[in-house]
Each structure stands twice: as C-alpha cells, then as structure tokens.
C-alpha cells in the first residue's frame, strides 16, 4: 500500500514509526514531515493545510490511504476533498471535525445529545464575558472557541486573571479562533485521554493514556499542548472505560452521524474522571500529542489495517487491537520559553544516537541546518519515549535518554507519570 501521512510533529513521527513496521506498506510519504521522519520515509515539503498540494501529492504517489495527523488538516477539509476523489482517508471531514475546531459547537452538541459535561457560556464580547464570569467561581476556565495549537485554554485562579484571559482572546491573540470564548465550569477530578476509532458506523476503543498539561513540575505553570504522557494510566479502571464508551463515545458517533457528518478516524475524548463519573472536557478529531507516542510504543497489532478500516467502512471486520503488556512513557523536551515565546534555533546533540529497542526519540519541532546540525524549530522539540515492564522502568529509561541528550536551550518536566507512580507506592 502507498500511504500519505500528513503532519510534522511528534504524533506524526510516532505514527510513521509504527506504519513503517507494517508488512502492508509499500511506500510511505510524509508531508511535510520532519528530520526524524526523514530517516524512516520520504518527506515532501507540502504544508499540512495546503489542501491542493496534498491532493496533488496523493495523486502523484497513487495513495491507497491518506492519514491525517493534525487538527489543522481536518479543519482545512482535506478529508472532504479526498472523498470527492474517492481516495480513502483516515481523518474526519471538516463538518465532523467541528467537534474539535469549535468548542462552542461541541458544548451545544453535548447539550443536544445528553453528553455529561460542565456548565458553560459562549461569549462574543468582553462585557458578555464579564457577566458570564459572575455565574462561575474560581478557578475559571476560559477557552478560545477555535483552534489555538493547544494554547487557547486558560485556567485562571483569580477573577483578574480570568478577565485578562478573556480580553486577550477576544482582543485577537488567537485571531479568528478567539472571536468567541467559552467560559466553563471547572471540573474536579483526574484527567484522562481515551481514543476511539470509527468508520462512520462501527466504533472501537483504541487505547487510553494520561497527559500532563501544565508546563512545570507539580502541575504548575501555564497550560501547554502536553508536556508528557504515559499509558496505561490507572485512572482508567474497567468501569470508567465502560462509562466513557457508553456515555460519551457511542452517543457522539451516533449523534454526529445523525447530524449528517459520519465520523471516520480517531476521536480523542479528553475527560475528567469525577465522583459522578466521566465528564467531557473536550473532544479532539485526531490522536493526542503526546499521548499517541506511548500508545504507538505499546500497540502490538499492525496499525495500518485499523487506519484503512476507518477509511473504508470495514472496522467491524477487525478484532480489538492488541497491546503489549508493558508501560510506555513520553517526556517532552521543549524550548525554553514555551508555551510563550520559545527560544529558536537551539542546537541539539545526541538525540540521534541508538538508545536501544525500548527507547524511541520522536521529533516534534526540529529542523536540520545547512551544517547538518539538528536544531529546535518550535515549542515542543523532542519526545523522548520509552517502554518497560512497568512504568517505573519505562520512566527511568526515558529520563536516562533525556540525560544523554544535550539541548542547552531546552527544558522538560522531571515528574512525568507522577500520578501513577505515586498511586503505585500508596
Ligand atoms: N495532549 C493533548 C492534545 O493533544 O491536545
């Protein structure tokens, strides 16, 4: 099979790493890819929102399957164009992708289909937002309505911070994505990320993990796209998984199909496990980043048949995926300043060494200079991932590799996996 994989981050590097192991694969082309992916497959300099360029590339390589990594490609409507050209695509249409691309759409969808989620108000002006804040108590949750590269969510501990976040978003910090804000009830509990595949009709759970959203150790500092993740995560008891499946996953796939936009791809359910069961925090129309990275390390089954089955409506023919009975972890190395203004161009040494079969270094925001040196090119730069018989071993292997990488202008959290590791010791 010829596969076109769209994207350039750590999630896409992990997907490429797993797809490249498939006996079904003839040719893998990544667009635009990154220097790490370039060691696994062909890369082409076509941007993730260049729908015309991606369509031309899919035709050129006679793609049997196009796999969409990032949300911006979903929102740009690549799946819609591929459907017109009858090219199988793993990734939802722009309409179905509104489950991620509009927080206001998702809250209204949750109301219509009875999904458990916190109270909210959608506001288009600062005055309306101030009035809405009166309805909530600290900590305040303020979200830009649209896509903001993981930076559109502020958890404000004071009213002043909340008003500043509202003014920031409505004042244009996120462009059109911040033309509306959603002010939400803060949900108490433990966060979790669950993934489910759908082919438009049939759905299947596809793993779960836990992310670390805050920038600094001890869950301090601003929200980020994710500073690390691990799987399995003990928050996902069999009971919770079943509740998420019946209360969130299945009604969502049924509802979006009833709305005329059957979902084909992976739905990422970000949820809060509360004392009254799972509450929806938000949906994403793609794999989580960095959650995808440990999931790919644990996935024993060939990934390609699952991606293809979502695209071709044949998921019912496949068994549930098999997972290694091991733990896996991802530690994000970010450029100093992230999630604000990351320091650019920092040199990275030692990341391309062979760390053995249980460690994988995925590139998230890197570039190769003309001098051949690897440099930072983004906020989240490298994903240092490892697996092991238990989470402690996986964690030690990952941090061992972190210590061997020289990225002077970078930082990482030192406590990835803390909830599970603390729980294990309790
Ligand atoms: N790690 C959270 C996300 O992918 O949005």
Short overview:
This protein has helices at about 10-20, 50-60, 70-75, 80-85, 100, 105-115, 125-135, 160-175, 240-260, 290-300, 305-310, 390-405, 420-425, and strands at about 1-5, 25-30, 40-45, 65-70, 90, 120-125, 140-145, 155, 180-185, 190-200, 205-210, 215, 220-225, 230, 265-275, 275-285, 325-335, 345-350, 360-365, 365-370, 375, 380-390, 410.
CATH superfamily of the largest domain: ATP-grasp fold, B domain
**Global outline:** globular
CATH topology of the largest domain: D-amino Acid Aminotransferase, Chain A, domain 1
Could you say which small molecules are bound to this protein?
Answer: glycine
Number of domains: 4
| Low-confidence residue ranges | none
CATH architectural arrangement of the largest domain: 2-Layer Sandwich
Estimated share of beta-strand residues: 25-35%
Number of strands: 23
Mean pLDDT: 96
- Our Rg estimate from Cα atoms comes to 20 Å
**Class by alpha and beta content:** alpha+beta
Largest sheet: 9 strands, antiparallel
Number of H- or I-type helical stretches: 13
Helix content class: 25-40%
């Amino acid at each position: 099979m010829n596969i076109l994989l769209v994207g350039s981050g750590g999630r896409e590097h992990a997907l490429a790493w797993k797809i490249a192991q498939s006996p079904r694969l003839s040719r893998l082309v990544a667009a635009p890819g990154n220097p790490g992916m370039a060691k696994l497959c062909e890369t082409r300099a076509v941007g993730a929102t260049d729908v015309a360029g991606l369509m031309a590339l899919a035709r050129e390589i006679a793609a049997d399957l196009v796999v969409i990594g990032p949300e911006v490609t979903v929102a740009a409507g690549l799946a819609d164009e591929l459907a017109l050209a009858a090219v199988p695509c793993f990734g939802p249409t722009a309409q179905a992708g509104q489950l991620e691309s509009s927080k206001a759409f998702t809250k209204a969808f949750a109301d219509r289909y009875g999904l458990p989620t916190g109270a909210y108000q959608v506001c288009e002006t600062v005055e309306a937002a101030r009035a809405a804040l009166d309805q909530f108590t600290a900590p305040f949750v303020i979200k830009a309505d649209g896509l903001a590269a993981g930076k559109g969510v502020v958890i404000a501990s004071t009213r002043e911070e909340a008003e500043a976040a509202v003014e920031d978003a409505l004042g244009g910090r996120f462009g059109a994505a911040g033309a509306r804000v959603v002010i939400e009830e803060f949900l108490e509990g433990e966060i979790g990320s669950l993934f489910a595949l759908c082919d438009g009709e049939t759905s299947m759970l596809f793993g779960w993990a836990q992310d670390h959203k805050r920038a600094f150790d001890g869950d301090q500092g601003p929200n980020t796209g994710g500073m690390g993740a691990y799987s399995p995560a003990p928050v996902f008891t069999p009971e919770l998984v079943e509740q998420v499946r019946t209360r969130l996953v299945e009604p969502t796939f049924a509802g979006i199909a009833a709305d005329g936009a059957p979902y084909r791809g992976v739905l990422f359910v970000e949820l809060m496990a509360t004392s009254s069961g799972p509450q929806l925090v938000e949906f994403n129309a793609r794999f989580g980043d960095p959650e995808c990275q440990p999931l790919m390390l644990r996935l024993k089954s060939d990934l390609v048949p699952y991606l293809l089955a979502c695209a071709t409506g044949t998921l019912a023919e496949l068994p549930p995926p098999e997972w290694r009975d091991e733990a896996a972890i991802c530690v994000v190395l970010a450029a100093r300043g992230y999630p604000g203004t990351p320091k650019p161009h920092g040199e990275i040494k030692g990341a391309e060494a062979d760390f053995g079969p249980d460690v994988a270094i995925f590139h998230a925001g890197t570039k190769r200079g003309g001098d051949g040196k690897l440099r930072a090119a983004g906020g989240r730069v490298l994903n240092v991932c490892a697996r092991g018989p238990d989470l402690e071993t996986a964690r030690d292997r990952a941090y061992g590799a972190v210590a061997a990488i020289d990225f002077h202008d970078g930082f990482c959290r030192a406590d990835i996996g803390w909830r599970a590791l603390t729980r294990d010791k309790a």
